[in-house]
Model the fold of this input.
Amino acid sequence: MTEYPNRAARTSARLLRLLVTAAAALTVGTLLLLVGYILVKGIPSLSPSLFSIHYTSENVSLFPAVINTLVLTALSLLLAVPIGIGSAVYLVEYARRGSRLVALVRLTTETLSGIPSIVYGLFGSLLFVTYLGWGWSILAGACTLGIMILPLIMRTTEEALKAVPDSFREGSFGLGAGRLRTTIRIVLPAAIPGILAGVILAVGRIVGETAALIYTAGTAAQVATGLMSAGRSLSVHMYMLWVEGLNTDQSYATAVILFFVVAGINALSALLAKKLTRG
Amino acid sequence: MNKRISERVAQGGFLLCACASILAVSLICLFLFGSGIPTIVKLGTWNFLSGTTWKPANDVYGILPMIAGSVCATLGAIVIGVPVGILTSIYLARFCPLRLYRLVKPAVDLLAGIPSVVYGFFGLMVLVPLIRSVFGGTGSSLLAAALILGIMILPTVIGVSEAALRAVPDSYYEGALALGATHERSVFYAVLPAAKSGILASVILGVGRAVGETMAVIMVAGNQVRMPDGLLKGVRTLTANIVLEMGYAADLHREALFATAVVLFVFTLLINLLFSFLKRRAGQ
Done:
């Protein structure tokens, strides 16, 4: 045991320790309560009819929403990942230190990451839905989400690229490779686990997103038949269940599925990050 | 020769990618301000910002109740979430045994990943009935919104504060120990003050989250348009106002909602600016 100079010191030390431990316990306790409640109420609500291909007001199937979520996720990643990686490569490998452009890119990226999702939603509905005339559509939703996750992809890729030791680059230059070859053949492969961890976090944001989608991808309950047709994601589905105000059981079931997806995504991302730090 | 061309092309391509976020921010500003600011001017800036009546049917649009609602809900979230968050981050950074850390840290990350609709649903099914049975009333209230937002900003506050605490050089802690302070005293009186800017930044970031949160708040706050009067009465936030009415709004009503979004956007821009400033100061 630690020795304390006097009783007052011991009491105050114990109090402080108790305080921080209690706070941590409260945090973890909140999570356990939330997860436990969702699982206990939700798992019994899962029924085969929830997974029918077609939504009717009888079965309140969430399966179309799952498909729409997958399509939305794939499309927004397709948009944001190449641009985000390219942008991070420019910032880390090409840009000169202290350039004004870099400062501007950083400022705008930070701005993007702070914008609330409902503002993204309104912007998407102004630009894609109304101005470009796409209407409520999967494409409009995916473009909106693509912009939303761009800063996340950029930041994680930047960190992954910075973590690649300079000796890799020097070795490659020394062998006569140019900057492009060095970046594509040497630096990017070494950074892949970090980049992937970021992409997976982005998937988590997309799956959990509601406010940015309601007025861009719309709330149609069926599987979207094309890029230009509307469709609700799983999170939007859960919100619509609340709006309609009837189907509590189905809401529990949707919550369980959302939770499992998010938990799986977090585990995967943590695994990759661990791989990265081990080298 | 060939190599030089491909190098040039590649550099240009990467540069274009880097400009994407500049383009995105410009477009967002252009479209939001372009459709919101003329409306604010048309409605009268002062009338719009300080009007306490929001009656779309009569074309009366004053958003002060929603501004006050957002501010109150955010303040409540800070009162609830920030102390717990900061203390948890101190525990994680300086008290937690490594084995336990491997469990608690992923738990905090998971808290960050849970979708806001799930938080809202949890609030609706657990917190609202709890408030109803303990304090009476409907339960959908400012208190419920503050509680759920307080939980939702926890991972943000914890993550950024923990990083700030870990960035404090060990010499601070060791110096305090060498002067005879206990472990607890060293952490609270030497390490914690040194991490002040970073911790403040975490609070600002949490404020940003709380102001911008939409779905969870809608589901628990009651959404009545009125000036907040008491913890147990319903409130409507700026975000809730937009989502609830956008679906059926037309003409001036619709434009007034875009104007609401402009106000929200300006709020978050200011919060962002403050955050970057504090982060930069913490980095020095």
User: Anything to note?
Assistant: The CA atoms of residues 125 and 275 of chain B lie 34 Å apart. The first helix of chain B runs from residue 2 to 43.
